Amino acid sequence: MSIRKTFTVLLLIIIPLATFAQGTERFDNYFIDKTMRIDYFHIGNAETEIITIDHIYQYGIWAGSRKNLADNFNNGAYYYKIYDAASGELIYSKGFDSYFKEYQISGIKDMRSYHESAVIPYPKFKFKFALDKRNDKNELTEVFSIEINPSDISVIKDAVKDDEVKIYKTLYSGDPHSKVDIVILGEGYTKEEEQKFKTDVEKFTDTFFKYEPYNRMKDHFNIYGVLKPSEESGVDEPRAGIYKNTALGATFNSLGSERYLLTEDNKAVHDIAAHVPYDAIYIMCNHERYGGGGIYNFFCTFTSDNQFNEYLFVHEFGHSFSGLADEYYTSSTAYDNFYKVDLEPVEPNVTALLDPANIKWKDFIKKGTEIPTPWEKQKYDEMDYAWQKQRTEMNNRTAELKRTGASKSEIKKAEDDYAEADKAHADKMAGYLNNSKYVGVVGAFEGAGYMQKGLYRPMLDCIMFTKSCDVFCKVCEHAIENVIKHYLE
Ligand SMILES: [Zn+2]
After folding, report:
1. How many angstroms does the Cα of residue 435 sit away from the middle of ligand 1?
2. 119, 100 in Cβ contact below 8 A?
3. 349 with 480: CB under 8 angstroms?
4. Ligand 1 centroid to 349 CA: how many Å?
5. Residue 171: other Cβ atoms inside 10 A
6. How far apart are the CA of 219 and the centre of ligand 1, in A?
7. pLDDT digits (tens, 9 = 90+) for 396-419
């Protein structure tokens, strides 16, 4: 063998090794294997926006990827970005949405402050922490930045310890660095309800893997249930005059929408989640009413005991984990102007169809499919809008009964009547959609993202569209799979 040949053979051996090492080399250059949490206040109203740093924490190992340090999904209204101070190089980024953004869109004029956390791998050296926000063309522009010294003595390094907190590992597939680590936090479970929490976490862990792509990628997940018992059972229902002292402060009627269930106690959420390595946060609310919410790379909530709890559980996580948009448009929400029909949304599963030849999911569209794709929309809208009106009336009546101290049986009857009507309507709509000749077609169906006109969804039905659907459309499923892969390397 000539020298030249030997050299080539050596190179062939060395190259794959080098490529592999390159994976975490960059991480090792800039970060240590710990988590930094930068807490800040996001203050403002529809016009103003101010950001102030609260506290910075160090804890546990870094649960995220050590290879994919840049977020290239281009999703979410905001990005936080970490730049090495000495070189100015971008070393970490992540897109997200926030409660503040939704408050801002709701158009309320009063100044409010919301607490947020940027969870990042722990930098070795001084760095610039920046927040980018999308402008009216959806381009990211920096709205805040500050230099942070990770060695500063003001960084809080308290041990994460709370004797009341219980941890249940319901699925462990391996090293958190290369798995998707999901924490399910218990909200509104008292000490006496610990067993119920455990049963619920196990039940929903099983539920998770009934759906694709989660099922075929099960080996890539770790799931932890973490419970800090609440003083009282349930969550706040302001319209009914019910307030509960709970560990995470979740409440119905968030931003004035009756079934929107969120918490503003972001610090409590992250303090309790910090007991395990986590990439994504679920807040499981111990309640029977229909309610939930999901904010991209923030958290999601769902109620444990509603008849549609499995739907809520997967639908809301579709928002918070993969940044999927709501594909429905008939039900009332907290905001009227979430999307604009003349601006392409950043989410992967809705389009304004400004360039019909280049829809973001065009790879899934069969040649010859009509765009926009016609469907039996008029009758669907008639039936669904009629139900939305009836649903609001029924819910208002139940709230009225609770507020005025009606008897337990009277309240229960109103709730049961509503649950029955809700289910009957969901079944009726499922039947209607299933009879369509467009079942299984990927195209561009008008009606999506709270807009009856001007926004389009990929398929007739999807978990992001109706609660009677038990599969994600092809486009959502693919988007979720891409997000999972981001955490695996
Ligand atoms: Zn979908």
Report:
1. 19
2. no
3. no
4. 6
5. 17
6. 24
7. 999 999 999 999 999 999 999 999
